[in-house]
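Standup notes
- DV: blocked on the single-chain target, sequence here:
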Amino acid sequence: MDTENLITENISYPHELERIYRKDPKAFKKSFTHVWEQNPDSQVLGVWYERLHFIETANKEKSSLLQKGFLFMGLLAILAGISTRIIFHFVEQEAIAPINLIFGVIPFIAAYFIYNNTPRKSVIYFLVALFLISGFYLNMLPLNYKDSIILTYLHLPIFLWVLVGLAFTGNEYLKGSARLAYIKFNLEYCILYASMAVSGMVLAALTMQLFSFVGLDIADFYFSNVVLFGAAALAIVAAYLVSMNLKLAKNITPYIAKIFSPLVLVTLLVYLITVIWVGKNPFLDRDFLIVFNGILLGVLAVTIFSIIESDQDKKKNISDYVNFALIALALIIDSVALSAIVFRLSSYGITPNRLAVLGVNILIWANLIWIMLSYMRFLQNKSGPSTIQDSVTKYLPVYGLWAAFVIFTFPIIFK
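- DV (later): unblocked, structure below
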């Protein structure tokens, strides 16, 4: 018996219709239209009609949106590549600082997020104004490498990263869940971009080697016009792919968090014991103090990475205790670094570098205390994992405000 007759005979039996559909969905869909035309008053067939055609409509809408977003992403990627190449030309002429290259990429990523999740006009105007002010202010500064100027260059990416976060979260910038999604985006973005960048480097090396076989050295031309353009365009493509819920990065980040957290903990414990054993002193050794602060930032990044990728359920596991140990270790490192910085300030006076490092360490110290207290409450079953994640997401704007303070005041205070 053909499928059309089966549908007609079982028109009043939803269970049998479902069984027929699952047995051969293609034949069911093909025969259904004719049966529906013969029995337009059947409520059962009416439900099936909506079920089948809703799926088709949803797919068409999704395909249309995907195509529209893809075209806009492509346009932004081309514009980012062209802008970066133009900016690089002025950098080569030593007319502007190399840090300006960041404006060839970051604003276009923000533009994609605004397009993808359009916020209120006030938020858009605010973002545009801050990007313009940042770019204008940066190029009004003297083109030298004094401490206050270098600190401005170092803090500018942090400030712009926060602005991109505002574009990403849109109207929900005050919600912890939106900020959490932004941090997760960054983790997945870095993994995906790094993967594609490695492929790009292999292609670049292969291309230059092939041209070298015919006696042509295209290294300078290829870097300036192809690699630079590709690196900038790839940044927009990676943002698009991650926002499209690409599964590669999403599947790998939790495993990286679980593998690296205990490895970092063991490595740092061995390192600190070795430091004590050989008698290194961050109070007197400036270079070692810089390394010490670098370690602190690395531990903080790994800790946040692990917290963000932790499970949302309330069950504790070994990873939570590893994270807590990492936080405690980071707090010890930060306390030592803070003491060393205060010592150097009182002994050798105030400089832009010392003041900036002091500010960063105070901010990190306060953040670590908050995270540690939240983790203690979680481990004592007094709160859920969301409290820990709140201690990370709610503190993010503080880093942006500090970066803005350094960028817009240090060059003026320390002329």
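- Follow-up: The CA atoms of residues 119 and 170 lie 5 Å apart.
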